Amino acid sequence: MDTSFEELLLATRRALYHRIATAQADGRAPSLVAAVVREGRTVWTGARGSVDGRAPDADTQYRIGSITKTFTAVLVLQLRDAGLLDLADPLEKHLPGTGVGEATITQLLAHTAGLAAETPGPWWERTPGSLRPTLADVLGQDPLRHPSGRTHHYSNPGYTLLGSLVEALRGEAWEVVLRREVLEPLGLTRTTARPAAPYAEGWAVHPWADVLLPEPAEDLGLMAPAGQLWSTIADLARWAAFLAEGDERVLSAETLAEMRTPAAATGNESGDDGYGLGLQLTCRNGRTLAGHTGSLPGFLAGLWVSAEDGLAGIALANTTSGPLVGGLAADLVRITAEHEPRIPSPWKPRSEADPELLALTGTWYWGPAPFVLRLRDGRALELAPLSGTGRASRFRPEGDGTWAGLDGYFAGETLRAVRRTSADEGAEVSHLDLASFVFTREPYETMAPVPGGVDPKGWRSA
Question: Beta-lactamase-related domain: which residues (predicted)?
Answer without folding.
Answer: 20-335
